[in-house]
Design goal:
heterodimer, A: alpha+beta, OB fold (Dihydrolipoamide Acetyltransferase, E2P), three-stranded antiparallel β-sheet, 9 strands, 38% strand, B: alpha+beta, Gyrase A, domain 2, Elongation Factor Tu (Ef-tu), domain 3, six-stranded mixed β-sheet, 20% helix, globular, disordered N terminus
Amino acid sequence: MTTLFTADHEWLRIDGDVATIGVTDYAQSQLGDVVFVELPKVGRSLKKAEAAAVVESVKAASDVYSPITGEVTEVNEALAAEPALVNSDAAGKAWFFKIKIADKSELDGLMDEAAYQKHTA
Amino acid sequence: MLAREVETPLKRTPLFALHAARGGKMVPFAGYEMPVQYASGVLREHQHTRASAGLFDVSHMGQIALHAKSGKAEDAALALERLVPQDILSVAPGRQRYAQFTNPEGGILDDLMVANFGKHLFLVVNAACKAEDEAHLRAGLSDVCTIEPLADRALLALQGPKAEAVLAKICAEAPAMRFMDAGPRRIDGIDCFVSRSGYTGEDGFEMSVPADKAEALATALLASGDVLPIGLGARDSLRLEAGLCLYGHDIDTATTPVEGALEWSIQKSRRNGGARAGGFAGADKILDQLETGAPRRRVGLRPEGRAPVREGAPLFASETSSEQIGTVTSGGFGPTLNAPVAMGYLPSPLAASDTLVFAELRGQRLPMRVSAMPFIANTYKR
């Protein structure tokens, strides 16, 4: 399974034609204590760079953008119930939503882990 | 006001080095570089203050000594009553009172604390307003008073249930103070001005200390394992849960003290029929509103869902109505309540507790209930 990253600090795990999307550990460290997460509805069609989810810390609200175009196939209800998962396990249990990839060529512009680490260094 | 200050270089408080050494994340605030949080984060800082004790650097705030030229504090008190709707003459030596500077339209120029130190008055004003406040005092009171900004003093706040025990170790007089007592006290051999007050809803103390002794005092207080340094982030969530106004957000030049639900702070002596009724800027409007009510009121708001509703969110009477009836002026997540909380303005007929209103957020209408404040009971030692 390949993991890719955006400049806006989202990660995508690619499994066939489905991408699982979350925010990076760097993003959660910048956000601080997460107290609320709003997820997209299953079945919603998202365009690349469209605001798809919201993550809120005590201090502020931030949008999570869809890194690619496609339809939402599943959302992480456990995360909505326990937003602090973003702080404790951003790269794992705190996935936000899964999306059916509409255009694989959109993945070409994303970073691999080495490039992302350079981006946040 | 903030936008203008961004263009000038940021100032630092006498505790800047301490903030940096303790991992403070520094942000610009009211012209100063201030810690928004430390390593433990806003949530833990908030909870620690409610459970134990937190130390806040509020040295950016303005401290002003008001001396009557006659040498009598009563003359300074009477003069100050020209600028505020409060009874200052009845503030006994060793006590302090919450007040507001008003403008001719009845709006609030700033809110402040006024302490009677026996021979003179001691004022604490908001950081973003302190230059304007000084000018306002000079313009209004120079015939009777000298206005002395105390720029060489820092201000620390120690808040929380363990504040008294912590401070008692280095200030034997602290436990005898009650809520809103204020005056000179020695702390750990340092000459300070101490009041039993704060901005969290918790029992606690505020300590004015000479700038060159501020780090020593902060270090002595932090030496207690019960005390954590607390940043502006938790300061805001603590005061919001306590229902306390943030100037420039919940009250400003366009809100009167009655609209701001601060009429409890206006004593009978300054109201119609009182011994010194009126005589302050905006008195006509404010005294009239005290008798007949204000068209709108600041209220507490509890979102029914989990989503925080923040400053600026428009309020509506129903899920479908197109007419905006009010605005959220402060809002966020209350860690002690484990729920979102907010305050805002509503037309008086809709300001009663339990009224259902709707905030618009990301294209959705979210239900909120008008709620009594404070959201959590305060623990002042009266």
